[in-house]
Backbone:
């Protein structure tokens, strides 16, 4: 989707308003932090994804959840080389 926006003064900064359909298409939400990068083609706007530590990721896991079938099959495969169990 293409659109237009006008650069406007907002206090000591400037900003642009993005059309609602574009926000929906990009999956952006009001108040979300985005990263900006100048490129030879213009301005690249990316959603900032949270960066988690291993401890944070482990805390989100359910240790009682069953292992997915494809991983269980892989985990239970017999050794075929010099693997040590």
Residues:
């Amino acid at each position: 989707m293409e659109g237009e926006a006008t650069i406007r003064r907002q206090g000591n900064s400037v900003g642009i308003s993005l059309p609602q359909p574009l926000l929906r298409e990009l999956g952006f939400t009001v108040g979300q932090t985005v990263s900006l990068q100048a490129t030879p083609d213009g301005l690249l706007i990316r959603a900032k994804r949270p960066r988690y530590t291993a401890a944070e990721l482990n805390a989100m896991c359910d240790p009682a959840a069953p292992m997915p079938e494809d991983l269980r099959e892989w985990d239970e495969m017999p050794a075929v080389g010099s693997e040590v169990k």
Observations:
- Residues 20-26 form the longest helix (7 residues).
